[in-house]
């Protein structure tokens, strides 16, 4: 376990300097001075696993390729799968040109690891087919997250839950929802110190969670509004430019919670193997491109000081702290954009409590990276 | 007290259709069908009070004029005051052209009501001068909010605290901070039903709270980023376009709370005359123009159901409810933009509690209107 943590920690400091969306600040880029000099091509090697990417044309599918390259993931072969519409198109990867193949029930023969991100219904239909063919499915959809017997994994948090899964014997492993991953990267080290009893989360979620088209909708609407034209909502029901709104996932009309909020509740309990932790969440979509932020209030079983919290966070792999009270400098979504790490700040004793069992914090993480593709590739790394 | 409430309630449904910033949606405008047909010119009348506007060229100063007009506020004379730089310029109001005068210590002779919004240091210096000259100062700055003996007023919440103040005898009345007003418009009716013990607030605050230049910075940076140019932070320390950040007010380095957050704590206690209510807040600036949103978790002394909460909210003047779970339609900043009312939704029992003493809600209110100018003019109305 120790060597795993070290390995993840070293990788977590690597930075990706390509300024997708032109949204990175100089300040954020400066943080990349901590990056390790690594060969950033994936490692094609005859004894590596055979990989399939399901949904390669989507935002997360593309990020799978970026992350595999960045992390020098060993593979002997890679198959790029998508719908019939995209089959036949080409895709560059690791210096070679691949032809995208149509995803079918026969796609998984000989595949060791299949990274799925093609939506819940495709996962539901073809995930078990792939597992039956002997592949280990790492599924980014919500299809199997709460299924008993399917491990729900954040590699820094609960790698032990997938210890029984080995390459060569088919299985499904679920990637948690982005908001859950980002929250638990920050909260788990504190939970280990003082045991979280109750979490109250308000999110500030980026467009990317709803896919590349949602990011484009935000761009186009913003242009239109700045030009004095009316914004045209397509994917979302209300104007997104210079606005924010309750998360667009389906709502439990009886409870009044949406699916995004319930994922935070249920997935946390499964990942922590703790059915008693109390959670409430309000999930809000904000006009930001690809990194989520979360304001988190925590109530603990035991006392915890700010110093203990910061120490635990600083030791946790995949977490960076920006907590400069003097200069009022704390994490922003742009700090986290395209970064591997989750950024934590505003760590402080909750003044609404008379005891020492409360903390407030503010967390930012890249929704496509640690919230999706990176976490899935880290799961695949645990199989090596 | 009853007739006051009715009068505020009627006015609260009036809408302002001018689409400042081009940011209003058709849907938001539709809500204006509830508007009352009123003469929308202010009422110049020989027996009305003499008014002064201090800081008339600022965002809130300009909104004072809009609100006075919209609400048909009676006045016999109006004096428009600003710094020497703006003195001599002209300003249209209610069909007449006024010359802006330089603000000096002698500006307040004969003035009955002075609406101040020219920053804390000017309020500190000239507020007491105006009061000594016999004017009632309604001050929008934070200069006197926590001063003993100065009423801190939300007209729908604690009008009784200024009952002793009458036109003709100088006094200072403080307008609360925007985040406090917007939160307490939603929370006070619930507090009256079940007594709030603890509030956990996460804000989504608009550019306007930092003034017109901050709104322009958001516009300009957004244009630049969309054009692939670097964003140039000027007023705020980090990029604002497609980003969000911890509120830019000064921070108590020891506590780790910023001034905006502490205002919510301290002002709520003063307005409710309740020193025991517990509050924690995380204040975040989001890329939205002029309406704040707040995610609020409430813990009560006594049981409260969703139905009781909605009933109390529906009866409270100045509150509109958008709480359509079936269609996932809840308040957005654009719903509140240029509107008098504060919009409340996502009202639901807190599932992180085993008892019936918890609620979550989401609130939006126009920062310049109910968060500043409208609340101040409503205070002035209580003096009539």
From TrEMBL, chains A, B:
Naturally occurring in which organism (per UniProt): Chlamydomonas eustigma
Pathway assignment: Amino-acid biosynthesis; L-methionine biosynthesis via de novo pathway; L-homoserine from L-aspartate: step 2/3; Amino-acid biosynthesis; L-threonine biosynthesis; L-threonine from L-aspartate: step 2/5
InterPro entries: Asp_semialdehyde_DH (IPR012080), Asp_semialdehyde_DH_beta (IPR005986), NAD(P)-bd_dom_sf (IPR036291), Semialdehyde_DH_NAD-bd (IPR000534), Semialdhyde_DH_dimer_dom (IPR012280)
Record keywords, A-Z: Amino-acid biosynthesis, Diaminopimelate biosynthesis, Lysine biosynthesis, Methionine biosynthesis, NADP, Oxidoreductase, Threonine biosynthesis
Pfam family, one: Semialdhyde_dhC
Protein name: aspartate-semialdehyde dehydrogenase
Enzyme class: oxidoreductase
A GO biological process held by the record: lysine biosynthetic process via diaminopimelate
Active site: 178 (acyl-thioester intermediate), 292 (proton acceptor)
GO molecular function: aspartate-semialdehyde dehydrogenase activity; NAD binding; NADP binding; protein dimerization activity
EC number, UniProt record: 1.2.1.11
Quaternary data: Homodimer.
Family to which this protein belongs: Belongs to the aspartate-semialdehyde dehydrogenase family.
Cited NCBIfam families: asd_B (TIGR01296), PRK14874.1 (NF011456)
Domain Semialdehyde dehydrogenase NAD-binding as annotated: residue spans: 50-165
Reaction(s) the record says it catalyses: L-aspartate 4-semialdehyde + phosphate + NADP(+) = 4-phospho-L-aspartate + NADPH + H(+)
């Amino acid at each position: 376990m120790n060597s795993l943590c070290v390995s993840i920690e070293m990788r977590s400091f690597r930075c990706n300097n390509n300024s997708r969306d032109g949204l990175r600040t100089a300040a954020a880029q400066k943080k990349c001075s901590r990056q390790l000099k690594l060969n950033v091509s994936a490692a094609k090697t005859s004894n590596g696993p055979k990989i399939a990417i399901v949904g390669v044309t989507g935002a997360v599918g593309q990020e799978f390729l970026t992350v595999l390259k960045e992390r020098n993931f060993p593979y002997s072969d890679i198959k790029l799968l998508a719908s019939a519409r995209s089959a036949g198109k080409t895709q560059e990867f690791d210096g070679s040109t691949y032809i995208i193949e149509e995803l079918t029930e026969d796609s998984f023969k000989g595949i060791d690891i299949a990274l799925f991100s093609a939506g819940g219904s495709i996962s539901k239909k073809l995930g078990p087919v792939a597992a039956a063919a002997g592949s280990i499915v790492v599924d980014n959809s919500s299809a199997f997250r709460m299924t008993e017997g399917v491990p729900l994994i954040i590699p820094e948090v609960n790698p032990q839950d997938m210890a029984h899964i080995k390459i060569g014997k088919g299985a499904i492993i679920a990637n948690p929802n982005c908001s859950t991953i980002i929250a638990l990267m920050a909260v788990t080290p504190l939970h280990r110190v003082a045991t979280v009893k109750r979490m109250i989360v308000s999110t500030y979620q980026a467009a990317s969670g709803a896919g590349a088209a949602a990011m484009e909708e935000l761009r186009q609407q913003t242009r239109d509004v700045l030009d004095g034209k009316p914004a045209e909502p397509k994917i979302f029901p209300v104007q997104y430019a210079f606005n924010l709104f309750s998360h667009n996932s389906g709502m439990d009309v009886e409870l009044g919670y949406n699916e995004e909020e319930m994922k935070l509740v249920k997935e946390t309990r499964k990942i922590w193997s703790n059915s008693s932790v109390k959670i409430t969440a309000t999930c809000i979509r904000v006009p930001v491109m690809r990194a989520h932020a979360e304001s988190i209030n925590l109530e603990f079983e035991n006392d915890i000081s700010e110093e203990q919290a910061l120490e635990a966070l600083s030791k946790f792999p995949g977490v960076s702290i920006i907590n400069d009270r003097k200069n009022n400098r704390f994490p922003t979504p742009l700090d986290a954009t395209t970064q591997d790490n989750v950024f934590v700040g505003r760590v402080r004793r909750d003044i609404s409590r008379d005891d020492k069992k409360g903390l407030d914090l503010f967390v930012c993480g890249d929704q496509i990276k640690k919230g999706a593709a990176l976490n899935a590739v880290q799961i695949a790394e645990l199989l090596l």
